[in-house]
Structure formats: structure tokens, C-alpha cells
Amino acid sequence: MRKDRNKKLLNNKAFAAATVLGAAAIAVAGFAAYNRTLDTLTPTTSGSTTSTWTFSAPESTPVNAEQSGVEREDKPSVTTTSKPQPAAEAASEATTEAEEVNKPVQSEARNIMPVAGEVSHPFSNGELVKSETLGVWKTHDGCDILCPIGTEVRSMSAGTVTEIREDPLWGVCVTVEQNNGLTVEYCGLAKELSVKTGQEIEEGAAIGKTSDTCQIEIVQEPHLHLGVKQGGKWIDPMSVITN
User: Fold this and answer.
1) Which residues contact 194 (CB under 8 A, 6 or more apart)?
2) Tens digits of per-residue pLDDT, 161-197?
3) Whose CA is closest to 107, among 4, 203, 206?
4) Which of 21, 54, 151, 237 could form a disulfide with 147 if both were Cys (CB 3.0 to 4.6 A apart)?
5) Residue 22, number of CB atoms within 10 A of its CB
6) Which residues contact 116 (CB under 8 A, 6 or more apart)?
7) Exposed, middle or buried, 190 (CB in 10 Å: 0-12/13-18/19+)?
């Protein structure tokens, strides 16, 4: 009977000791978990001295936008590419630009007749015509206006005398760069002139007098050979004369 009582006491002590150890183990585990939780908290300080703690995920833990409650807007990347220009369109634009650059200057100012008379040999516009003097077929890049020798030749429009030359075929020639964009040549003049190189002249200004110095057309009736260029190309002088 005594032995059973002692044995029961020993069992009660063992149970109590186990209970104490279990409680201690639970306390230690809870303390460790508490410390780990503190490590993940970041203090934020407001204007007052009170600090609040917010959860900060460890660097090794990825944060999911949906789980964290943060709205995430995924913007697709936009790649801009220049559309290549078709070859036909590029060629058309280049042609248009070239035409604008080479487009002859239009004459807006009036151009008077340099002498009064009829046109005996018109501008051939690149066509071959037979030369009465040379007996060969050639282009006639101006027009011949009939007038007696010694007729005063007047400037078709205002401009500047850019050249005076004595040509073995065309005789004494005066070139005037007009202010309206035309270049005018007066050929077959007498050596005594009323202008000089570099002189600025007005419309109707006296240039000189007709003569027989134009050897390439010497067999024709007395006349003034008149040549006009627009944009560097010969044109019909009569097409720009307005008076």
C-alpha cells in the first residue's frame, strides 16, 4: 500500500515536470517568432513622436501586386518604325523638285519692240532651216526684224548691260540681263554704241544702231537679229513682246 502511494507521487511529479518543460518550450518558440516578426517591421515616423510599424517583405520574397493590394498598370512597349517610301513616290518627288528648280522665270514686265519692222525670219524652235548666206541647214535661235541700216535699237526692258562683243559671224553684239529674268542679245549693230558694259538701262533706252556687221546673214535684207533666252534656253522673242 505504501509502495503504490510513493509510485503515484512520482508519476505526479514527472507529469508536472513535463508540463513545465512544455510550457517553457512554447514560450521560447513564441519569443523567437516574435523576434522574427520585429525584423520584418519598418518604423515610420509621422509629425508626432509616435512610431507606427508597416510590414516590409524580405528582399528574397517577391511581392505580388494582386496580393499586396497595389494596382499595377502594364503599359505595352511601343516601337516606332519609319515606313519606307516607295521608290516610285520618291522618284516622283525628285522629278517635281527638279522641275521647280529648272522652271524658267516667267516674264511679268512688259517688253517693247526694239525696232519697228516685220519679222523676215522667225525663231525656228530647234528646227533646221536653210541659211540663205551659208547654204546649209541650221537652227535659227532668234528672229530677224527688217529695218533700214542706221535704225536706232532700243532696250526691250530695264536691265543691265553684261556683255559687248564683236563676233566674226554675228557682228557687234550687246547682251542685256533684264530685270524681268530675260537675257536679250542684239546682234548686227554698228561699232558706235550708246551703252557700255555694266551700265544699267531703262526700258526704251538707246543701245546703238543697226549695221551690216552680221556676216552670217549678210545676204538678207537689212535687219536686226534679236535673240532672247529664258532660264538659259533660247525662246521665241516675239512670244514675250507685249508692245
Assistant:
1) 205, 206, 207, 208
2) 999 999 999 999 999 999 999 999 999 999 999 999 9
3) 203
4) 151
5) 10
6) 147
7) middle
- Global pTM value: 0.58
Residues 23-47: b if buried by 16+ CB within 10 A, e if exposed? eeeeeeeeeeeeeeeeeeeeeeeee
Q: Phi and psi of 65, rounded to 5°?
A: -60, -35
CA-based max dimension of the chain:
175
The continuous run of DSSP H or E covering 139 comes out as: strand 137-139
How far, in Å, are 70, 99, 121, 231 from residue 159 at the CA level? 81, 26, 26, 16
Chain length of the chain: 243
Q: Which amino acid is at 39?
A: D
For residue 98, give the C-alpha cell: 527638279
| Cα 229 to Cα 185: distance, rounded to the nearest angstrom | 9
Q: Say how many CA atoms lie within 13 Å of 11 toward its Cβ.
A: 6
Q: Which cell numbers in the block locate residue 25?
A: 518550450
Per-residue pLDDT tens for 125-139? Answer: 999 999 999 999 999
Query: What's phi and psi for 73, nearest 5 deg?
Result: -110, 110
Q: Which residue has the cell 557700255?
A: 196
Burial of 199 (0-12, 13-18, 19+ CB in 10 A): middle
> What cell does 96 get?
517635281
**Cell numbers 519692240 correspond to what residue?**
113
Residue with cell 520618291: 90
